[in-house]
Structure formats: structure tokens, C-alpha cells
Amino acid sequence: MLSAIRKLFRATESAPAAAIPAGQRVYAVGDVHGRTDLFDALRKAIDADDAVRSAAQTTVILLGDLIDRGPDSAGVIAAARAWRQHRTVRILMGNHEEMFLDSFGDIEVLRPFLRFGGRETVLSYGVDRSAYVAAELPECLDLIRMAVPQEDLAFIRGFEDMIVIGDYLFVHAGVRPGVPLADQTRQDLRWIREPFLSHPAGHGLVVVHGHTIFEAPDIRHNRIGIDTGAWTSGRLTALGLEGTARWLIEAEESDGAIRTAQRSI
């Protein structure tokens, strides 16, 4: 009888809370999508938050999709490169960066890239709007090749596929449920939605991801989605992690002004 009671007690105990290793702090930033204004405000808020906390080894992780849809992808890339000069910033490859890079060598990729937000990226690099409108696809590709600096392309090619820190896995889109981490494909890491989003069981690590837009951060026991649709909602979200603590920092545009706010979760 006593053995059965103990077994029942163990079965109903909560799993240990996911944690970041002692002495470390992490900030994960959702999909920026060309919103330099929100990104600038959120970077300042993260820097300020980090400065008032206890000393730690701090890592900022950008979850991918820095580019497309919003008005200033070139500015976001420049800001990310500059931020990396002052602190540890690691960046994940999103599906939009993948399409951007692939479009330089494949006209058939260029077409959907431009359709799904790439047009805004091209124009942010100074391509003349009238020339862009008049160009056929091969001519458009020539315009892009002339406009985008090789330094930016090399920077984007260096983006990572996944990052593991403590009990957290950081990816752009998600993971294929039931597949070992070492066997996950880049296609899934950068593009997956289902069956990842609705999967009820754990993944071994808590997955922090972007890619799928939520009205508010989607916090589940097995994953945390922080893409709040910056390019369309005017709200860019960051997740702070230290030990077992979690908090959100958000930059939001309202009535023409950008304000930042913070709350524990």
C-alpha cells in the first residue's frame, strides 16, 4: 500500500521548471520583419534591463525573420550587426532569410520571395521604385545584386539553425515532434507549424520560437511563441530568461509613439 501511494505521489508531482544555467541570462527577440523603429526601442530596453540586473553572462538571441514585410530590412540588418559589436548576439536563420539568400541563384525562388515581403526588402536597399516596377524578373535580380552589399549577405549566411542553452531550445519555427534534435531538418526548423504547434507532449527542452504570429506571446509547457507580428501589429516582443525566471519586454507603437513595457510571466 505504501509503495502504491509513493508511486501515485511521484506521478502527480510537477516536472522541474525549465532553467537557464547559473550565471547566465538570455533575451530572445521575436520576428522583427523590417521594423527598425521597434527594434531600436527594444534593443535599448533590453540593454537597460540587463544593466540593472546582477552581473551575468548575457546572450541575446534573434529568432530569425529580421527581413521582409516591414519597411526597413536593410536598417534592421545594420542595427543587428552594430549590436553584435557591443554584446553577444546570436541570430537564427528564418524562412525569409533562407528565401532571400536562395533568390540570388534561382529565379523561381525570387518570385515568391518578392511576393511575400521581399519587395519591401529590395526597396529598403535603395533600389529605385520605378525601376523595380518596370523590371522583369531577370532585371530585378540584377538590381538586387547591385544593391545588396556582400557584407550583408555574408552576415546573413552566418545565421544559425538552432541554439541550446540550459533547458531551452531556440529555433525559428519549431521542431518535428518525436524526431531527435540531431535529426531535425532545416526545412522544419525554419518552416514548420503543424504538427508542432498543437503537439501536447514535451520535446525534451522548452522550445522558444517565432515564425507563427500570435496576438500575445503563446506560453505553453513545451514551447513559447513570441512572434507578435511586429510588421502588422506594431508590437515586437522579447523573452527574458534567468534561472527559472521568465519575463517579457515589448516595444509597441501607439498613436505614432513607441513605448516599451515589461512584465513577469
Describe this structure in words.
The protein is of the alpha/beta class and 265 residues long. The chain has one domain: Metallo-dependent phosphatases (Purple Acid Phosphatase, chain A, domain 2), CATH 3.60.21. The protein contains ten helices and eleven strands. Strands 3-2-1-9-10-11 form a six-stranded mixed β-sheet. A five-stranded mixed β-sheet has the order 4-5-6-8-7, with no helix packed on it. Helix 2 runs parallel beside helix 3, helix 4 crosses helix 5 and helix 5 packs across helix 7. The longest helix has 18 residues. The two termini are 40 Å apart.
Low-confidence region ranges: 4-13
SS elements, strand count: 11
Specify the CATH class: Alpha Beta
Strand order within the widest sheet?
3-2-1-9-10-11
Taking the sheet with the most strands, its summary is: 6 strands, mixed
The CATH H-level superfamily is Metallo-dependent phosphatases
The arrangement of helices and strands along the chain is HEHEHEHHHHHEEHEEEHEEE
* Rg, nearest Å: 20 Å
End-to-end gap: 40 Å
Give average pLDDT, whole number. 95
Name the assembly state: single chain
Under CATH, the topology can be stated as Purple Acid Phosphatase, chain A, domain 2
Q: What structural class should be given to the helix and strand makeup? A: alpha/beta
Proportion of residues in helical segments = 25-40%
Number of helices: 10
